Amino acid sequence: MAELNPSPAKSRGKRSVQRMPLRVDLTAMVDLAFLLITFFMLTTSLSKKRIMPVAVPEKDTKAIIDPETRTMSLCLGKNNRLIWYLGMPEKPLTPPKQIGYGNDLRKAVKELSDQIFKSSGKDIIVLVKPSDHSVYANLVETFDELNNQQVQTYSLASIAPNDVERLKKGGIY
How far is CA 112 from CA 72, 108, 123, 124, 144, in A? Predict the structure, then answer.
């Protein structure tokens, strides 16, 4: 049982009437506190995970090799910068260009996607290649931008040594 027993007041030379010590029973307050704690613990929702659906190919299907004329590579570097090019890392079809995120990335993906659709009638394929010095927030921003641009085929790929050299030349590795 929880109690609160205050100390008796000291008299300063005066004679005072002796009072009974005040006794406050705190059992009900302790019970109420635990009930409230339990209530808030059970009714509080924890932060929910934010997930993005990712399509993973089945193991039985054969790998479909798409032409390099439709493949855009995005190499994520540091300082909120990235390099993009069309083609494969060994032999890019366009010279690598260094851009930032946001409007620069949106414009590059949109223009290249439209150009590829006009020339081949097929959608663009985007390979996202984060480097060791890139930031996770930039990776999420890249995937969000690809979703906003309604790019149907994109993938997370490991960065090639040629791409690392391009990032070093651009000063963003």
Answer: 8, 6, 10, 8, 17
